[in-house]
Amino acid sequence: MANHAYPFGSSRAGLGIATVASGEETAARLLAVVDRLVAESHAGRMPQAALVSSLERDLGLDSLGRVELITRIERDFGLKLPAETLAGAETPGDLLHALLAASGQVAAPEHLAAVAAPLERAEGTPSTALDLVQMLDWHVAAHPDRMHVTFYRTAEQTETLSYAGLRSAAQSIAEGLKRQGLSAGQAVAIMLPTSLEFLHCFYGILLAGGIPVPIYPPARLSQLEDHLRRQSGILSSCLARILITVPEAKVIARFLEAQVDSLRAVVTVPELLARAAPTANPVLRPEDTAFIQYTSGSTGNPKGVVLTHANLLANLRAWGKAVRMDSTDVIVSWLPLYHDMGLIGTWLGSLYYACPLVLMSPLDFLARPERWLWAIHRHRGTATAAPNFAYELCLRRLDERALEGLDLGSWRLAANGAEPVSPDTIARFTGRFARYGFRPEAMVPVYGLAECTVGLAIPPLGRAPLIDRIRREAFLNSGRAYAAGPDEADALRFVACGIPLPEHQVRIVNDAGQEVPDRTVGRLEFRGPSATSGYFRNPEETRKLFHGDWLDSGDLAYVANGDIFITSRVKDMIIRGGRNLYPYELEEAVGELPGVRKGCVAIFGVPDAQSGTERLVIVAETRARDGEALDALRLRINALSVELLGTPPDDIVLAPPQSVLKTSSGKIRRAGTRDLYARGAIAAPGRAAWWQLARVTLVSLTPELRRFLRRAAEWAWAAWAWGLFACVALAAFVAALTLPSPDRVWAVYRGAVRLFMRACGVPLAVRGAENLPRDKAFVLVANHASYADGVALVAALERPIGFVAKRELHASFFARILLGRVGTRFVERFDLERSVEDAEALKSLVRGGTSLAFFPEGTLTRISGLAPFRMGAFLVAAEAGVPVVPVALSGTRSALRDGSWFPRRVALEVTFSAPIAPRGAEWGDAISLRDATRAEILRHCGEPDLAR
Q: Of 157, 375, 468, 704, which has fewest CB within 10 angstroms of its CB?
């Protein structure tokens, strides 16, 4: 298991507790105590404790959890620890020092290193690595001969690579690059097919201090010259010093060197492997560029995403945490290594977590898709990643004879991303392969992009794919994703891509950069430690990428119940007559028509200067040449367009095979196909548009005017809301200063808040108010989504209750008066000793008959989802013997999201659930109370579970 100092069943189990023995035994016993508490306190899979683990960050023990931990340590070891241990201990290693000191032993640094050594040499992770070279070296030191990659050179022939083998071969490549004159910080392009040599070269470049730039190789050697001509733009953009490629490319090295000023050598792997004495490698830093990822289809103006070592390691760690990756997983991949999903998501991900990687050529998969599935069967693969078309290809190309005896029961994670995810493909794949052991919850639609390293969002594990059915007309006309009823046969369907990775954030904004409410389409922006600093030597595109500290994904999306739903690429959306049209559904439907080549349909908009809108063009490949057959096909395509988009296309081009351009990974290049169309290079030019001019112009004016008025109304309402709130707050402040009793102050607060909501047109639904106990004290626990939470609770509660707030608010005169006059208790969050004192005071208040309200998530965030709960409220309730009333707040996050002061008019809901009584006053009873309360709030709040 990852991050284990000792495995279960080893010296950590079965030790007595009467005395403190040797330092090593003490460490084992101590970690066992920590593990038991962590297991009790946190449902689900948690890391096992190590001496260097952070008690709060790594093990999730808050201040009260640490109090319980120290109590158990003192009880189990029969010792009294110094009082300063509570405030000073940050890791189990700190507690070990305190234990040994209390027992008369002194822990020398050598002793701690000896105890921690098994952590680094087990199947752990390189959590201390600061760059990719340190990541590899950690594994070489921990398990040099461990199998890293099994590569299928042919269907029958495999070759393997260990961690030590990768390091040795990479060092040889590094020496060869140094002999070629490579200096630190210079780019080296890798144009190699999927192979172990690619892996050697990638790390060899890093060891030599260079920057790897993967570019895709030609599909056939006969296309080599044309391919390199097109790739010269990337080579020039990254200032490539050296190109590593196949021997056949040597013949045109002179051409490349003439086209790319920076290029000094075109070399092959054997040429770099000539023996030489090793020399010192440059020292890398986390902020150094690890590699440059050029986006698919880059030609005239290449965009090279700059990714640092810190970016890559942050994404690998966040992704691994989200999918619970460890060394027991087996990854099976055919994805090309020049693509970010193949390079980072599969190879570097498997390297970081010590997962065996089974690798095969993309061409092998395309030729025989069953080889991918049989490799999962043979190697008991647990995790894969692939674009949607790969799952579709398995459905179309494989008959039952090729699958006889197949067992996919080991497959727990089938990530589906890198292109639009089809609801139909998901349903058909999970349905067909269920008979071979494939489970629906293993299909995991994900979202990512090169600008965020690779991964950005993923659904909760164990959940079957979630498909959102929304009203077609409302979506196309206004961008609102209202849920469709079961009887609406023409509903649009979008697949949920889950929630952002840990430490990453997402928001949806309109064209003015304002965050929009849930179920409203807008541009998806993101930020986090995986985000790029920009495009290499492309300041213009970098400026477009950043909006403050947020990055523009280029995708349109909406959020519903915390899930992200991608609807389109911004550049793929067609604006016609004031309506937003999305090409994917129609492309898929046209591809299903008899006579049309499936997966070879491109739909795009062409600007029309006369009408001021875009013309809708459909290009579909077909082998039909008969005039009547083509006319019939056009009629069917036209009817589909009217049915799905509500409008006929302006032009339908039935083109011969190979007319629709695609990227190297098989995705439709709509922009490139549109350029061919604009030049008249695809079949016949489109129809004249003069006859549409008057109609389209009139149709487009109304939606544009409606959009302008809607935005103006949003700004006007926001100004009105804040102005009115200022008046209400001032009245409440005067009441707090002048009225004699807290009950009267509360009555003024509640009346003012309800008046404010009515005046602003904000509906408030209160459910279950009868569940509030009237004759005894209780602890009220609510989720914390927004600064509007307190306002909603005051409006919903009929009688006063004391809030528990962070002590930092006490420093504000205005907040201290407003909150303090209604019995708010300010508690310490950071000073452990003061925090414990505050907890004791709260227990005394509740025992004396005072009801208190807690937000146990602590500090709110803008990310949708219910965060883990701290223990304070539940220990107070358990030890005071009073019930907890769960309260679910819904809508407040959309009304006023953290980090934004632009309010939205949305419906608010406050749901009071039945009280939950504690079973006892022990720590375990408080944990049970916490878990039951959290489950009840999760059921009603409409947001995902961030603790999974």
A: 157
